[in-house]
């Protein structure tokens, strides 16, 4: 299947995915918030935050319509813009996707850590209660922001990546370069 056909498939299914995500997460939030819900304590807070973040991530995904493409020694994280943006805003929103991607893994890890603590070390459940829960969320935000900052500052666009980017857009996707921005993760060999 060609890359251009894949773009058409993602265009068609993107809105459906966002609607499905919003509907299922709102339903889950309503069930969690219900007084009869069996979910209690810190796990309830983790699930609520996870649902809210998932809806935000779905919105970011729909807004950016990302494409991840590997060419030569570079992984391109590209966004297909809906409208013209300044280069700074465009690059910042593309790196925001990288931060959201990192945050999703951190939240999965947090959920599994909590499950481990409740099952194997129940004495430490207090580490997830009250204000301490906010420290876990703050830590997750810090990791996501560090990933976004790394993408923004450590992987700049260069003449070489710009040529590769234009080549990929022309030969693979047939997209207008004015409405696509990218973050180039270049692999650099130390040997």
Automatic annotation (TrEMBL):
<dbReference type="Pfam" id="PF10326">
    <property type="entry name" value="7TM_GPCR_Str"/>
</dbReference>
<feature type="transmembrane region" description="Helical">
    <location>
        <begin position="88"/>
        <end position="113"/>
    </location>
</feature>
<keyword id="KW-0472">Membrane</keyword>
<feature type="transmembrane region" description="Helical">
    <location>
        <begin position="46"/>
        <end position="68"/>
    </location>
</feature>
<dbReference type="InterPro" id="IPR019428">
    <property type="entry name" value="7TM_GPCR_serpentine_rcpt_Str"/>
</dbReference>
<protein>
    <submittedName>
        <fullName>G_PROTEIN_RECEP_F1_2 domain-containing protein</fullName>
    </submittedName>
</protein>
<feature type="transmembrane region" description="Helical">
    <location>
        <begin position="15"/>
        <end position="34"/>
    </location>
</feature>
<keyword id="KW-0812">Transmembrane</keyword>
<keyword id="KW-1133">Transmembrane helix</keyword>
<feature type="transmembrane region" description="Helical">
    <location>
        <begin position="133"/>
        <end position="155"/>
    </location>
</feature>
């Amino acid at each position: 299947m060609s890359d251009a056909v894949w773009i058409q498939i993602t265009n068609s299914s993107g809105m459906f995915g966002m609607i499905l995500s919003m509907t299922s997460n709102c339903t889950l939030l309503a069930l969690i918030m219900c007084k009869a819900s069996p979910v209690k304590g810190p796990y309830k807070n983790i699930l609520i935050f996870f649902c809210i973040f998932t809806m935000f991530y779905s919105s970011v995904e729909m807004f950016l319509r990302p494409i991840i493409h590997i060419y030569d020694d570079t992984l391109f994280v590209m966004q297909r813009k809906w409208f013209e943006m300044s280069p700074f805003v465009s690059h910042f929103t593309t790196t925001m996707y990288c931060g959201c991607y990192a945050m999703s893994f951190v939240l999965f890890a947090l959920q599994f850590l909590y499950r481990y603590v409740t099952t194997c070390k129940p004495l430490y459940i207090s580490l997830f209660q009250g204000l301490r829960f906010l420290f876990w969320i703050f830590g997750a935000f810090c990791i996501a922001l560090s990933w976004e900052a790394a993408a923004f500052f450590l992987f700049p666009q260069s003449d070489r990546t710009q040529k590769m980017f234009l080549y990929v857009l022309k030969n693979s996707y047939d997209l207008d370069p004015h409405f696509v921005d990218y973050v180039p993760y270049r692999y650099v060999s130390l040997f």
